[in-house]
Amino acid sequence: MTTRTRILAIESSCDETAAALVEDEIVILSSVVASQFETHGKYGGVVPELASREHLRAIVPVVRSAMRQAGLEYEQLSAVAATVGPGLVGSLLVGLTFAKALCFARNLPLIAVNHIEGHIHAVVLESRRDGHPVELPALALIVSGGHTHLFEVRERGVYRLLGRTRDDAAGEAFDKVGKLLGFGYPGGPIIDRLAPFGNPRAIPFTFAKMKGNTLDFSFSGLKTAVLRWVEARDMAHEIARRKSLLAENSRPTTNEWLQVTPPMTLDLLASFQRAVIEELLRRARVAADSMAARSVIVSGGVACNSGLRAAALETRLGCPVHFPSPTLSTDNAVMIAAAAFPKFRRGEFADLSVVAQANLVLA
Amino acid sequence: MSVHRTHSEDETIELGRTLAAELPRGVVLLIGNLGAGKTTLAKGIVSGRVSADPDEISSPTFTLIHEYGHGIYHIDLYRLEEERQVESLGLDEIFERADLVLIEWGERFPRLMPPARTEIHLRHAGVDEREIEVLKRET
Fold it and tell me: How many CB atoms lie within 10 A of CB B52?
């Protein structure tokens, strides 16, 4: 007789179709993200796992693969969790409907999870597993291509929104600057790799003073400032060289990028990255002070940025800072399972009539 | 239809609010380079229609589609490269049932955009100045 709690979680809020099995809050039995299937040639190369049709193709093999890797049968599950929002309705529906059908067929409880809460709990899971748990109340900075939020995190799943972006997400600013400079899309990870080769103080980008909530972010002005800086210089030739490098080779190495990126452009990348990081951490510090945070959580795709990681550890935020490992920073289903465990303990189950909510808010 | 000039973000949002009352039902393409003010204008238009705080209307670049209720959609196709990808979003269904669909970078996929539509062209015209032209296309 087993007393283990095992949750199968499904995430399909945007581009990724993902499934994971987590046991007893912290043991990751399996984690599958659809892009891993690329090597199978099943999806004919570089097809983004986009929108409902792509999720539909991926969902069954992804869940099966997660179950097989975990070595589990459906009888051994305690519950099924799925992302209900925020995200694209058509995409969310695929994962949620699959989860509902499985719950109905196997008589399992369904747990509805907010995607953003998942990003927070990816860090809660890893910090507990690694023996230095996040202490509450915590400040959570969620930074990705689609989100830039500051939340106060309290016991029993209580959240309070402290600030958010009013225009572009931080990851979006990275990706758009990368694209306009010829690094392809998304260019954020390439900027992070090249930034250490430039002078982060070469170009003094500034942020306009925010009216209203001082914990809100705005990255649209910085993106435009980079565009104007590029337009004021003759960079067409080097941008064309980078585009042709990318056309020949979809994954250039750092050295190959350096060969087509002059020092001035490296300075631009370094200065831009520094500006974003300082803006994120400046407001995070004020937010952490305002709520007397005992720890800080940084999660979401931009949490992979090594410049942000280094700066967050150097900056005195007044309390320990927790990052997820890179594979749990970007969208995945482990984080959905992690967020589902406290709900399972509290008996917060969703009715099978629960619907996907594109604009679901956490607080 | 009309040409406007704005001199700040606030003025662009205000213009959006004014246009919200005038725009016909259907698809509106917001056309302009990066940083031209497409999302800023969308903030004004959406907040003029659904009485939302403009601060709550952010860029849909990553999430592709933002729904604001009352049949109002804000779509951004910036990060999509192929028609096939755009087709998988099911835009036709949205076009059918929506009241107002604002689309950024939709002009890159002309075959998938309805021929009867409004186009708003935004041009950067000096430090904080924007020229914003509203055109109605019938065919």
Answer: 16
